[in-house]
Write a structure and sequence with these properties.
two-stranded antiparallel ribbon; 11 helices; single chain; Rhomboid-like fold; mainly alpha
């Protein structure tokens, strides 16, 4: 049976490859704030996550999503029961929207601004993993050792916040930052109302145990 993670990857790859060779598809789906402001094309919050700048951009995002998405799907089944897959899908899709809200409000009338890619939603999935399993090792491509997940998370947030504030980059670091924060908030809120699992208590216990 195909997982939600694989279904999202397949859909994203298909649409991205179609957009690589079709400028109209790219223009119709990309995140373009003025089109949302003046033409109510709110769907762009989600469709921009289905397209990517190039194969390297697509490959990095989908590789990262595969590595963490499959694990989080399984964690969510343990935490939320049979609703786990549906909640996982809600997290991913809603993260596409939430991570871009600050970008939208800062660029509502900016006719030169466009953004694309699933990085914000992928960040939400990665940080849900970090909060559930903070002492698990996370490795980076081409670096032959692992960091504890919570250390990686702190560094990631600091770097994303710095470059978001600095600006001048073609990478939407704001989406990375807010996607990551949203992944944690989503986990805490849904667990509070739907399960007996308490992510904050678990996170504190795991980190304390790591240092003891």
């Amino acid at each position: 049976m195909i997982t939600i993670t694989l279904a999202i990857i397949l859909l994203t790859c298909i649409v991205s490859f179609m957009a690589f060779s079709n400028e109209k598809i790219m223009d119709d789906l990309i995140f373009y704030p003025p089109a949302i402001t003046h033409q109510n094309q709110w769907y762009r919050f989600i469709t921009c996550g289905l397209i990517h700048a190039d194969i390297a951009h697509l490959g990095f995002n989908m590789y990262s999503f595969y590595m963490f998405g499959d694990i989080i799907e399984k964690y969510f089944l343990q935490i939320y029961g049979e609703k786990g897959k549906f909640i996982f899908l809600i997290l991913y899709v809603s993260a596409l929207v939430v991570c871009l809200l600050p970008t939208y409000f800062n660029n509502r009338e900016n006719y030169h601004y466009k953004s694309l890619g699933a990085s914000g939603a992928v960040s939400a999935i990665v940080f849900a993993f970090i909060f559930i399993a903070p002492t698990q090792g996370i490795g980076l491509m081409f670096i032959p050792f692992h960091f504890p997940a919570f250390i990686f998370g702190i560094v990631y947030l600091l770097i994303s916040a710095y470059f978001s504030k600095k600006g001048g980059s073609h990478i939407n670091h704001s989406a990375h930052f807010w996607g990551a924060v949203y992944g944690i908030i989503f986990l805490i809120v849904t667990c509070q109302f739907l399960t007996t699992f308490r992510p904050v208590d678990n996170f504190i216990f795991e980190v304390r145990s790591y240092f003891s």
